[in-house]
Amino acid sequence: MPSALPLADPAPLDGLLPASAAEGASSRNFGVYLHVPYCRVRCGYCDFNTYTADELRGAKRSDYAGQAIEEVHQARAVLDASGLPDRAVSTVFFGGGTPTLLPVTDLAEMLHAVVGTWGLVPGAEVTTEANPDSVDLDYLLALRAAGFTRVSFGMQSAVPHVLATLERTHDPARIPLVVEWARQAGLQVSLDLIYGTPGETLADWRVSVEHALAQRPDHISAYALIVEDGTKLARQIRRGEVETPDDDTQADMYELADRLLAAAGYSWYEVSNWARVDETDAGGQRHRSRHNLAYWQGHDWWGVGPGAHSHVGGVRWWNVKHPAAYAERIAAGHSPAIGRETLDDETRRVERVLLLVRIREGIPTSELTPAGRLAVAGLIADELIVPADALRRRVTLTLRGRLLADAVVRRLLEA
Q1: CATH number of the domain that 106 lies in?
Q2: Pair 231, 377 in one domain
Q3: Fewer Cβ in 10 A, N or C end of the chain?
Q4: Can you tell me the distance from the alpha carbon of 244 to that of 237, in angstroms, rounded to the nearest whole number?
């Protein structure tokens, strides 16, 4: 949840959506994202909308679950009044921040509010992010009892000096413990990694990937470190205290990760995400993050909490950032949304290309303009897309294409 909010039109205080948002809604999944904006410490690389205890002036962490539940109730009223059909929730995702800094009873109450408001589809995915040092076995057991199905641990690295640069506080030795506890609780497990940290070598990165694979998680995400303006890391780089991440080194790290993951039985399904393949699940479908896939596939979701973003039927909006401002709006019975935009047909088309190209199944060439379809031959020649899939009229990325996904999108759109 990036901290900077985009510029757009003011959102109405009642939150009502235009009639266009309901068009085709019955064919789209509906998910709920709950943003928990609290962290024990602020990591120097992080640009998310998060707050430590010292930064929470005017807001109490203990009041947050009740405020989020009130927004859930608001959301149902807004969707009903805006003509959206009644849809059960396909995925629920608690992100942050560190959701597991809240008492597990708070997360359970928030989840139960979602379930009581909309219901869940059979086999719905319910995930929370967690830091390895923010949970124990009892906490994870309580999550499972409350209805959670999946936990995503922010591992980032297994190398102490890399974790220190990222200002992560956990001990790498805790990763096997929390993964085993999650398994005992009956939760699926995802591990999140970051590569390209200043001072991180290719050998360091191999240690981290191999340490993650040794735990046999169901899912692994690996994201290149991006230096965001306004972060402590950006200031350190500007002052020359640490090196700028090197693009070539990051590319080497990505290729190494993909090779190690594939050899260990993991299949990529989005540029930065891999799912474990089972004998009965050749494509790793069961272990994919269905909530994140909903973003890439253009489904609907309501984002609850300070700074949370939502998207329903081509209407995108975002809430006020600070927890105190959020609490004030909720208490007044107003929508917490501060800005929104209604996407025109061309913007929706461009975004669909940008997002679908990133996933393994790619995008049908029928969704490209005639000029975009003409660009396919050149992308094949440059070994950026899979030739056999292109013959079946679908654009899918090669390994080289994944490294240059943004360039592929530009050529499909600019041709």
Answers
A1: 3.80.30.20
A2: no
A3: C
A4: 6
User: Can you give the residue range of the structural domain that contains 52?
Assistant: 9-296
pTM for the full predicted model: 0.94
Q: Taking a C-beta distance cutoff of 8 angstroms, is the pair 276, 217 a contact?
A: yes
Q: What is the pLDDT of residues 145-167, one digit of tens each?
A: 999 999 999 999 999 999 999 98
Give the list of residues 6+ apart from residue 209 with CB closer than 8 angstroms, or none: 193, 222, 256, 257, 260, 261
Contact at 8 Å (CB) between 410 and 350?
no
Band (pLDDT 50/70/90 cuts) for residue 297 is very high
Clarify whether residues 215 and 278 are in a common domain.
Answer: yes
Q: Which of 296, 330, 365 is the last residue of a domain?
A: 296
- Assigned domain for 334 exists: no
Residues near 284 by beta carbon (within 8 Å), at least 6 away in sequence: 266, 267, 269, 274, 275, 276, 277, 278
249 has which bridge partners? none
